[in-house]
Amino acid sequence: MVKRAASAGIDGVDHVNGKKASRTHAAHIINSQDDYKHLYKSVQPLDIFCWGSGSMCELGLGPVAKNKEVKRPRLNPFLPHDQVKIVGFSVGGMHTLAFDEDSNIWSWGCNDVGALGRDTSGAAEKLKHVDAGDSSDDEDGDLNELESTPAMIASELFPPLAEGHKVAQLAATDNLSCVLFTNGDVYAWGTFRCNEGILGFYRDDIKIQRTPWKVPDFSKFKVVQMAAGKDHILFLDEEGVVFAWGNGQQYQLGRKVMERFRLKTLDPRPLGLRHIKYISAGENHNFALRKDGKLVSWGLNQFGQCGVSEEIEDGALVIKPTKVLLPEDVAVKMVAAGEHHSLVLSQEGDLYSFGRLDMCEIGISKDKLPEYTYKDVHGRARAVPLPTKLQDVPKFKNIAAGSHHSVALAQNGIAFSWGFGETYAVGLGPSGDDIEIPTRIKNTATQEHNIIFVGCGGQFSVSGGVKLSEEDAEKRADEMDD
Questions:
Q1: With contact defined as beta carbons under 8 Å apart, do 427 and 73 qualify?
Q2: pLDDT, position 135
Q3: Which residues form the RCC1-like domain (predicted)?
Q4: Which residues pair with 281 in a beta bridge?
Q5: Less CB within 10 Å around the terminal CB: N or C of the chain?
């Protein structure tokens, strides 16, 4: 069960086009057309926390076997904020990318198809013998030391850095990594998969790309945003045109891909969407926010995760961008989506969710499901196909969705999570139970942090935060006691 992730920012500003805006609760990249704000980069170095299941080195906490399961957020010891100075990251299905304030790019996690952008083949793995007297299910051998430990990708592989350009955004799918620089250049590495296995990387020329590679220009204008799905990725240029690249078997690319031509068309191509100011992607479905404020979606919709109709149909596809049925007065701030569920955060901090609920993905308790909830032939509630506002929750400033779990950050910097609990990706401790509604993550490591950046993978999560001052920490403690 693997998945890409969403992203967020912190108190400050950073812009692709070099323009400056007033300070708000988060860092922003601004579309040069309409000043729509996207959350990606911090102006303060972050403490990085990781938790969940990491048998494929996802957690980046080092090679010791006990790091394969971490049930609450744990500070990453390899990324100290006063030395490494991470300011942004993106979480893929089984790997994570991060960048520091000097635009050095770091990676950790599974490197089977080159998603880390660096060679990890020389690792000295120390595996325990299966019959060893001290072996156990929890300590069945150490991890690959080069994959499980965060490390920099060689900066000389990114010519824009030598020219004085900076990292604007990172994006990670299940098997691919991308970096967008402030001059609009896109570099990528890894590969795409499809139902039949490895699809490829670029047309029929490259199957797997193991080091960063400049993607040939595909727009006349500068790229200003990326959105990563499971095995596809979207790009938005400064003119508001959307491009898609990767696997399109569920209409993620917004067009029908003929089997005999799928490699010849394996490159970023426009999907006919214009006048867009923001994009987001789930595993196999997508969202785009038009400049008039209307949100549209397309792709796989068998659990109503596109939010375009009350109708539920197995294998359903939305083959062209269609209006999401949000209340008319909702101003969209950002969207996050998993395999079969979606989240929409409003500018006011309200959270709307829709899609599958088998594993508590949508954060609505079973006794408060709306009347339009879809039930199967046995009368079991399976999905909520329309955006539904969550009740009795705080105002949020950021959201992220994994395959079957989610994390939302309250405006005071406290993280709440819900969804599938068996892999501990919700970060709520050892029970492993599914979490029905947004529940505060309580642990010593993060209790005095303003968490402002979060991402969710397939079975793990990553957050970044800044330690509160003593005064602010006391104020928060008082608020929690009230």
A1: yes
A2: 44
A3: 48-462
A4: 286
A5: C
Question: Distance between CA 338 and CA 340 in Å, rounded?
Answer: 6
Phi, psi of 200 (to 5 degrees): 140, 180
Closest C-alpha among 479, 445, 437 to residue 464: 445
Nearest partner of 82 among 50, 47, 107, 49, judged by Cα: 47
CB 367 within 8 A of CB 387: no
pLDDT at 130 over 60: no
For residue 347, the one-letter residue type is: Q
For residues 247 and 285, the answer to whether their CB atoms sit within 8 Å is: no
DSSP 440-477: E---TTTTTEEEEEEEE-SSEEEEEEEEPPHHHHHHHH
Burial of 137 (0-12, 13-18, 19+ CB in 10 A): exposed
Record the tokens describing residue 461, joined without a space.
């999560």
List the structure tokens of 435.
């979490």
Identity of residue 453: F
DSSP 357-380: -TTSTT---GGG--TT-EE-TTS-
Contacts of residue 116, defined as CB under 8 A and 6 or more positions apart, other chains included, come to: 95, 107, 108, 109, 147, 153, 177
Q: Which residues contact 478 (CB under 8 A, 6 or more apart)?
A: none
Which residues touch 429 (CB under 8 Å, ≥6 apart)?
A: 71, 72
> What amino acid occupies position 65?
A
Residue 91 amino acid letter: V
Query: So what's the pLDDT on residue 123?
Result: 82
Q: What is the spatial distance between Cα 278 and Cα 269, in angstroms, rounded to a whole number?
A: 17
Domain boundaries, the chain: 33-119+140-479
Q: What share of the chain is helix, strand, coil (3-state, %, to 5)?
A: 5, 40, 55
Minimal CA–CA distance to 86: which of 103, 70, 72? 103
> Which tokens belong to 258?
């003929």
464 φ, ψ (degrees, to nearest 5): -135, 140
The first and second tokens of residue 298, run together, are 């397309």
**Distance (Å, whole) CA 189 – CA 178:** 7
Which amino acid is located at 299 in the chain? G
Span 34-59, mean pLDDT? 84
| Spatial contact of 46 and 462, defined as CB atoms under 8 Å apart | no
User: What values do phi and psi take at 157, rounded to 5?
Assistant: -80, -5
- What token pair was written down for 82? 């006063």
**Average pLDDT in the chain:** 89
Mean pLDDT of 207-219: 98
Q: Are 56 and 94 in contact (CB under 8 A)?
A: yes
C-alpha to C-alpha distance for 309 and 313, rounded to whole angstroms:
11
Instruction: Write down how long the chain is.
Output: 482
